[in-house]
Design a protein that fits this description.
Helix content: 55-70%
Number of domains: 2
Bound molecules: iron/sulfur cluster
Structural class: mainly alpha
CATH architecture of the largest domain: Orthogonal Bundle
């Protein structure tokens, strides 16, 4: 997948699963094989094509606005030149496109251009807060720059992948497996979860008023 394909696919993943977004992306590319055709499409028909990905009436004009802005800035539909920019410049270029936030930008930079950007998805954010890698009040958007700076650039991708794996296997959203967690001795949330698990009725613990 090229960088622009990754960017627009990531927009389709917003607020839905990757599998739903894949169905929507495939339907869109079958109906509109070129990005020019997506840009020129009737917006309602484009929304119909991507309906499976959810929020189609918002995502269709968003996709077209992104394409229009890229065409205005670059005169074509390629963004591979971003790989030659410093990371922060590439991120700024992407996040000043309409509807492109830090996560969508980081996914595009990391996965299609091999740059050391840190996408903070729901797993990374949850595990980061519980482990104290970010504070409980840090926003998802702010977490990107903070977590990206915590490891050397060559380790950012692995850091991202390992936090996701830990979040899926062990530090699950509702009932994390703290008894089996190799990080429990280091984790400021472990005692609260262990106490919740031992209580007659499980209630997700809070720290400083915030859900863990
Ligand atoms: Fe998550 Fe529990 Fe491990 Fe802390 S000890 S990282 S809360 S699984």
């Amino acid at each position: 997948m090229g960088a622009l394909d990754e960017l627009l696919f990531t927009v389709l993943t917003q607020h839905t699963s990757d599998s739903n977004a894949e169905v929507a992306y495939k339907a869109m590319r079958e109906r509109y094989p070129t990005w020019g055709e997506v840009l020129e499409a009737d917006t309602d028909l484009l929304a119909d094509a991507i309906r499976h990905g959810g929020l189609a009436n918002q995502k269709a004009p968003r996709l077209q606005a992104i394409l229009a802005e890229i065409l205005r800035r670059r005169g074509n539909f390629t963004i591979d030149f971003l790989a030659g920019l410093p990371l922060n410049d590439a991120r700024d270029w992407l996040t000043t496109l309409p509807g492109v936030g830090p996560k969508t930008a980081a996914v595009t930079l990391a996965f299609s251009l091999g740059m050391p950007a840190m996408p903070v998805d729901t797993h990374v954010y949850r595990v980061g807060r519980r482990l104290g890698l970010i504070s409980l009040t840090t926003s998802v958007d702010a977490a990107h720059a903070i977590m990206e700076s915590q490891v050397p650039p060559e380790r950012v991708y692995a850091y991202h992948v390992q936090l996701i794996a830990h979040g899926r296997r062990t530090c699950k959203a509702q009932r994390p497996l703290c008894d089996d967690c190799p990080l429990a001795d280091l984790c400021p949330s472990a005692d609260a979860f262990k106490a919740a698990a031992a209580a007659p009725i499980y209630r997700r613990p809070k720290r400083r008023g915030k859900n863990l």
